[in-house]
Write a structure and sequence with these properties.
Layout: E1 24-30, H1 34-40, E2 49-54, H2 61-68, E3 73-76, H3 82-91, E4 97-100, H4 112-120, E5 125-129, E6 136-137, H5 142-159, E7 171-174, H6 178-181, H7 204-215, E8 219-223, E9 225-226, H8 238-262
The protein binds guanosine-5'-triphosphate and magnesium ion.
Residues 102, 104, 106, 229, 234 line the site of magnesium ion.
Length: 293
């Protein structure tokens, strides 16, 4: 594991009181993944909860999930897109640690303890990486690898980070940091023209990375080996989703700058960072916020 992605001027020296044996909540966004879930869910280790967020699947995804893991919590997303599915799942988490886990068989359940270890060892955000030592992928194409490398460069330049795998969805973080992400509210209705809200699409991973980086949390990269999707087709469109990620990097940089400019103008007593952490000296002290179980 490396601190390679730690942002310049990281501000999370003060660690809140976190458990050494955290309750793990696995959030699984799924759109037509019935056959994959039948294989993947039984492979999961014993955890506090598994939350499936269905995107209106037509292939029996929910029934397959319940059959494979009878205790699974099932939610339906409120708008379109993987980002919205994750936001819905995160809002329902009752554990100490959130693990973002794809349903298509690409994420190896055996790696979950590695992510949790990184968090317990002091990371705020354990960022899976296929491109650091020990990582790998059975699925990456040359075009995607090049696109990812380019996008890493854009974000690293803008945020002073050293992410090696920006566009990878296997990550984990402490639940108390959720307010920091300020994700689009699941209760907001979808747009009338059917277009996705900002943050609802595949840009979600970049958005999360950028917001954590901007907040200065401690980011540790965790080597991860991406497996092949078992059944079905990817929902990702390399070019259009890649452009969306690029726009995200720009939009998040502007957002971070605006927040940085606004912060010193607030009176010290009321100063609160974008994330809900409070600060008296310009440093962010992440606040512990636990969703009641
Ligand atoms: N609920 C929900 N899940 C989604 C949606 N889009 C994608 N997913 C899920 O998000 C996960 C990742 O989606 P994939 O289509 O595999 O995309 P990817 O992993 O980025 O791309 P590949 O590397 O090609 O597999 C899978 O579990 C999908 O089922 C959506 O709109 N709603
Ligand atoms: Mg996939």
């Amino acid at each position: 594991m490396s601190d390679a992605a730690r942002s310049r001027g990281a501000r999370s020296e003060t660690k809140p009181d976190r458990p050494s044996d955290p309750r793990i909540s696995v959030v699984v966004p799924a759109l037509n993944e019935a056959r994959n879930l039948a294989v993947v869910l039984p492979e999961l280790p014993e955890v506090h909860e598994v939350i499936l967020v269905d995107g209106g699947s037509l292939d029996g995804t929910v029934a397959a999930a319940r059959q494979a893991l009878p205790g699974i919590k099932v939610l339906t997303q409120t708008r379109r897109g993987k980002g919205n599915a994750l936001a819905v799942g995160f809002a329902a988490v009752t554990g100490d640690v959130v693990v973002m886990f794809d349903a298509d068989g690409s994420a190896d359940p055996a790696e979950i303890p590695r992510f949790v270890e990184a968090l317990v060892a002091g990371a705020d955000f354990a960022k899976g990486s296929r491109f650091c030592a020990g990582g790998g992928s059975a699925d990456i194409t040359p075009v995607r690898r090049a696109g990812n490398a380019f996008l890493n460069g854009v974000v690293n330049h803008g945020f002073g980070t050293r992410f090696s795998d920006l566009c990878y969805g296997y990550n984990a973080f402490w639940t108390d940091l959720l307010p920091m992400l300020d994700l689009p509210d699941p209760a907001i209705p979808g747009r009338a023209d059917g277009r996705m809200l900002w943050g609802d699409g595949f840009e979600i991973e970049t958005l999360i990375n950028c917001r954590f980086a901007a907040a200065g949390v401690r980011i540790t990269e965790v080597p991860s080996v991406e497996r092949l999707r078992i059944y079905g087709d990817s929902n990702l469109h390399a070019v259009s989703d890649g452009l969306r990620v690029l726009r995200t990097a720009g939009a998040e940089r502007r957002r971070a700058r605006t927040l940085q400019e606004l912060r010193p103008r607030l009176p010290l007593a009321t100063r609160t960072d974008a994330a809900g952490g409070s600060s008296t000296d310009g440093r962010v002290a992440p606040r512990r916020v636990r969703v009641a179980s």
